[in-house]
Amino acid sequence: MNRAVELTHPGWISNEDKTLYYWTNTDRPSIPMSLVQSPLSQSELAVLPGSWALVDLRGDAPLLVSDPTASRPLYYAKADGRWIIADDIALFQKNVPWRLDGPQSEVFRHFGYSLGGGTLVASVRTVQAGTQVELCERGAKEDTYLKYRFVSDRERDPEVFADAFSDALDSAFARMRDCYRDSQFIVPLSGGLDSRLLLSWLRRLGIDDVLTFSYGRPNSEASQAEVVADSLGYEFVNLTYDELAMWSRWHGSSGEFFREHTWSGIALPHIQDWEAVRQLKEQTIISDQAVFLPGHTIVGNMHDEWLLQSKRPTKLIYDALADHHGNLQGQKSQVLHNRLFLRTVREILSDVGYDGEPGAVQAAVEWFNLRERQAKYINNSMRGYESYGYRWALPMLDREMWDVWLRGAEALTATRDWYAAFVAQAYEDAGGEQISLYDPRTTLTKKYIKSGVVQRIGRSAMGPFLNNLRVALIDKKHPLGFEAFDTSDSRLSLMWARARGITRVGQWSEAFLANRWGGSGPVPTSVEGY
């Protein structure tokens, strides 16, 4: 079959005849090349550890496979009778019509990322998390090999589950340590549950070459993060933001480079660590071979727990997903009538073997979060580290963590209560000093915000509008300096949009689609599909 392959990112290794490609970003692959020499079944793919991607050209139909977190985006398109395969969506500009996908751009406004296997480029598709794609003569055959389903006999004993969870963390972190050998690990530290657990487990395994950092406005989260780092014996750096300088960089060549190299055709560039990593690099306080460890985790992907008690949850799942994920424009009704959203939710329900039972309801909500938001937007923050030349690892999203999580009972996994107690114990065992969790909302909120007056306003006819306006007023000086990424529209127009229910990320998403988020952008300008 006629095909063209362009795999340009570092980390690809191949067999001698260049018909099998395996990607990893570690010093020593978590999967030996010999293991993937023979075709793997779906069950074998589902248990492969680490971060990886596969491109197999040995058969008549090329096979593309993504790991459960879509660690290395893979893309494909058919043009002039041949399949084109690449790991950078920009490479398709010379091969396919560079047109914006109309339906995907519409969901992007509401979600900040594409849905399903589509991208913002009309003729280009991506390999979704936990999916294999066979490129046949007549078209692409997509198949989800990862079955995100809770076991039938879920573990109810919190202590037994804690032991299993600890074993999974031990295995994942030990593999990470071995794969990255003598690398320096860099931990973005908020002092919250996830980064606190990550740092506690580094200490538990005796990993010493660690630098932690926090960032934002003075007195945001740094003091609490520093206590966490100091109590575990790790170096801490506080990086303060200059809003005007950051605004200037975002609207200049630095911002343009970042947007171009991190959008991946599927998501809004993840800007949260952008300025902090720049400062770390310019101050030369981290190694060129440093590995960033964000606290992305399998935990906490459930929301709207009341769904588990509903007798007729199916329609409510659609409503909850639209409200939780598709809320950027404050137009849930439009999302609920969007064909692409409806099709994506049906795919999710099929993937988890949905039968209306609480376990399937929880799996559906979590799998949507993991496959759509986490894999495309949250994990896309890895592109930011790569744009500065650094590597990364996601030990709390490694295979062992998925396996143990899907064994936990609803009472242990549907909320973060069990997890909070587990982290507190792990932190104490590692030598940590118990302190409260950092909450940016309490930093921003005045006492009157929680008063009965506000509650009464919320119940009034003007409640939603006034509540949105209140949040906008509180958030105009964000502790992480997010207003530096706002568009150049007047403050009044931005405030008015927020009052109408358009979130800050929603404003960014619309500006990004129009290539005016900070200046020029990579999004196609002509539209196909409308």
Automatic annotation (TrEMBL):
One of its GO terms (biological process) is asparagine biosynthetic process. It comes from the Bacteria. Its EC number is 6.3.5.4. One of its GO terms (molecular function) is asparagine synthase (glutamine-hydrolyzing) activity. The keyword Transferase does not apply. Coiled coil: none annotated. This is asparagine synthase (glutamine-hydrolyzing). Pathway: Amino-acid biosynthesis; L-asparagine biosynthesis; L-asparagine from L-aspartate (L-Gln route): step 1/1. It catalyses: L-aspartate + L-glutamine + ATP + H2O = L-asparagine + L-glutamate + AMP + diphosphate + H(+). SUPFAM superfamilies: Adenine nucleotide alpha hydrolases-like, N-terminal nucleophile aminohydrolases (Ntn hydrolases). It is an enzyme of class 6 (ligase). It comes from Scrofimicrobium canadense. The lineage of its organism: Bacteria, Bacillati, Actinomycetota, Actinomycetes, Actinomycetales. Keywords: Amino-acid biosynthesis, Asparagine biosynthesis.
